[in-house]
Amino acid sequence: MSQIMEMLIRRGFLWQSFEIYGGMAGFIDYGPLGNGLRRKVEDLWRKYFVINERSVEIDSPTVGIEDVFIASGHAEGFTDVAIECSECGRVFRADHYVKEKLNLEVDPTIEAVKSVVNEFDLRCECGGKFKEPEHINLMFETKIGPGKGKKGYLRPETAQGIFIAFKRLSDYFRHKLPFGVAQIGRAYRNEISPRQGVIRLREFNQAELEFFCHPGEKKHPDFYKYADDTVTLVDKFDKEHRISLKEAVEKGIIAHELLAYFIGKTRRFLLEAGIDEKRLRFRQHKDDERAHYAVDCWDAEVELSYGWIEIVGIADRTDYDLSRHSKYSREDLSVFVPFDEPVKIKRRKVIPNISKLGPVFRNKARRIAEELEKLENADGDVLVVIDGEEITVPAEFYEVREVEEEIHGEKVTPHVIEPSFGLDRITYAILEHCYDTDYVDGEERKVLRLKRWLAPVQVAVLPLLSRENFVKEAEKIADVLKENGVFTEVDTTGSIGRRYRRYDEIGTPFCVTVDHQTFEDGTVTIRDRDSTAQVRVEKSRIVSVLKELLATEKDLKEFGEVFKN
């Protein structure tokens, strides 16, 4: 881990934010290479979860008003238990500190933490005693507007912006389920004591898809594409299965087909991004770990130097979010789903007496009548709410009748399947899984075996000598490659061997070398990062050859035989 982090910082993938002021835990800067890599991961995510899905992408504010987070439950329940030292004042996340110092799993409740601290006389690293455990809300609080302003929070996830905009989004999709809405962006969690580098950040990048479906139809027409994929599952009883997704659904290990579909799609995405399948598994949340409103939840976990780390969460959140926002906003967030054939039903219906309502309630009479008509039954006085005002309507102002109606459909509050991706963790996992060392010419070499298309620098053009004619020729070749969409660098510093090692270490798939022969016959060498094999190619063919190589994982030696023919 220390070798990888040292390389990532030295080569410009990432580093500590606010470095010249001493830094701050939980914040990182992406350097030129890290930012380029993460952006390519985002583009791949879009290919899987937006472009090749019935989905759209939106962009909503990172600041939200307090009402949003009261409705979502974050204002009250988005907390961790913290313990503060009475001597040095340091604050720790309780369950993590207990795990680190005692190697014990403790429930993240004040009672459980207090019991463990007292039983083991757990103390701070400075030797001081801890104060009483307390809940700490993990959201960053802010004020919106001047003066006292309006209370708000930095969003702890990108999802809420999607739920709030549901009515507009449902209109966009012509109210036809299922449909997905994606968002990629920053989220914020004021972690108590963030550690583990990029694994636990206070400001991080998420990619989330909210896939809205009919509560009774949790299937996907494209499931067949993933049904036979074999995955490693760890169920809620800690039993490991190596099983096809179709079989996992049939056996009830995965709750339904739609969840299995997104597990399969997530696996394909992660493998294409460069995650090692041998170090990838999907772990089911235990009953006491799963959110109370969720039907089923699976985490994609990868094995890193930190241990098994969650990088994706895939959950069936039912109608929890839309129902909560509907309740608190008093907006109807349901969808009308038409039946294939109309259905006749008998039901009791409340019929308002307009002739009596009018003289008594005047301009509010029609609104009251509309509210009464929404009721299926009533008895005695009825309470209705008009513009926030509670109005009591006595029984004399309505009657209840049994009527026969032809029903053409039903209103349903959609359920949500949510695949949520931590882009920073995924980016780091790719780097760690692709990091390798081998020996070239008897010397140890550090190499990032990134997928070719993913490399932040795709081609390095290296003049053998730093003479003006060599450098100018290298720059000409680089300009042509850039014009054709190939991210290219020219490097003239150091020996050719050192420059090869430099680009191996940052994952550049190919180096093009301008040497003496270039000026004799118009050819250059292409060197492969992984095998270090080299082939000579005419300058006129360099763009087509490299673009084809970057689009595949073909062996350069094999490819070289094609050139000869």
TrEMBL record:
<dbReference type="InterPro" id="IPR045864">
    <property type="entry name" value="aa-tRNA-synth_II/BPL/LPL"/>
</dbReference>
<keyword id="KW-0648">Protein biosynthesis</keyword>
<dbReference type="GO" id="GO:0004820">
    <property type="term" value="F:glycine-tRNA ligase activity"/>
</dbReference>
<keyword id="KW-0963">Cytoplasm</keyword>
<dbReference type="InterPro" id="IPR022960">
    <property type="entry name" value="Gly_tRNA_ligase_arc"/>
</dbReference>
<protein>
    <recommendedName>
        <fullName>Glycine--tRNA ligase</fullName>
        <ecNumber>6.1.1.14</ecNumber>
    </recommendedName>
</protein>
<dbReference type="InterPro" id="IPR006195">
    <property type="entry name" value="aa-tRNA-synth_II"/>
</dbReference>
<dbReference type="InterPro" id="IPR002315">
    <property type="entry name" value="tRNA-synt_gly"/>
</dbReference>
<feature type="binding site">
    <location>
        <begin position="310"/>
        <end position="311"/>
    </location>
    <ligand>
        <name>ATP</name>
    </ligand>
</feature>
<comment type="function">
    <text>Catalyzes the attachment of glycine to tRNA(Gly).</text>
</comment>
<feature type="binding site">
    <location>
        <begin position="422"/>
        <end position="425"/>
    </location>
    <ligand>
        <name>ATP</name>
    </ligand>
</feature>
<dbReference type="InterPro" id="IPR036621">
    <property type="entry name" value="Anticodon-bd_dom_sf"/>
</dbReference>
<dbReference type="InterPro" id="IPR033731">
    <property type="entry name" value="GlyRS-like_core"/>
</dbReference>
<dbReference type="InterPro" id="IPR027031">
    <property type="entry name" value="Gly-tRNA_synthase/POLG2"/>
</dbReference>
<feature type="binding site">
    <location>
        <begin position="189"/>
        <end position="191"/>
    </location>
    <ligand>
        <name>ATP</name>
    </ligand>
</feature>
<dbReference type="GO" id="GO:0006426">
    <property type="term" value="P:glycyl-tRNA aminoacylation"/>
</dbReference>
<dbReference type="GO" id="GO:0044281">
    <property type="term" value="P:small molecule metabolic process"/>
</dbReference>
<feature type="binding site">
    <location>
        <position position="93"/>
    </location>
    <ligand>
        <name>substrate</name>
    </ligand>
</feature>
<dbReference type="Pfam" id="PF00587">
    <property type="entry name" value="tRNA-synt_2b"/>
</dbReference>
<comment type="similarity">
    <text>Belongs to the class-II aminoacyl-tRNA synthetase family.</text>
</comment>
<keyword id="KW-0067">ATP-binding</keyword>
<dbReference type="InterPro" id="IPR004154">
    <property type="entry name" value="Anticodon-bd"/>
</dbReference>
<dbReference type="InterPro" id="IPR002314">
    <property type="entry name" value="aa-tRNA-synt_IIb"/>
</dbReference>
<dbReference type="GO" id="GO:0005524">
    <property type="term" value="F:ATP binding"/>
</dbReference>
<keyword id="KW-0436">Ligase</keyword>
<feature type="binding site">
    <location>
        <position position="157"/>
    </location>
    <ligand>
        <name>substrate</name>
    </ligand>
</feature>
<feature type="binding site">
    <location>
        <begin position="204"/>
        <end position="208"/>
    </location>
    <ligand>
        <name>substrate</name>
    </ligand>
</feature>
<feature type="binding site">
    <location>
        <begin position="418"/>
        <end position="422"/>
    </location>
    <ligand>
        <name>substrate</name>
    </ligand>
</feature>
<dbReference type="Pfam" id="PF03129">
    <property type="entry name" value="HGTP_anticodon"/>
</dbReference>
<dbReference type="GO" id="GO:0005737">
    <property type="term" value="C:cytoplasm"/>
</dbReference>
<feature type="binding site">
    <location>
        <begin position="199"/>
        <end position="204"/>
    </location>
    <ligand>
        <name>ATP</name>
    </ligand>
</feature>
<keyword id="KW-0547">Nucleotide-binding</keyword>
<keyword id="KW-0030">Aminoacyl-tRNA synthetase</keyword>
<feature type="domain" description="Aminoacyl-transfer RNA synthetases class-II family profile">
    <location>
        <begin position="3"/>
        <end position="456"/>
    </location>
</feature>
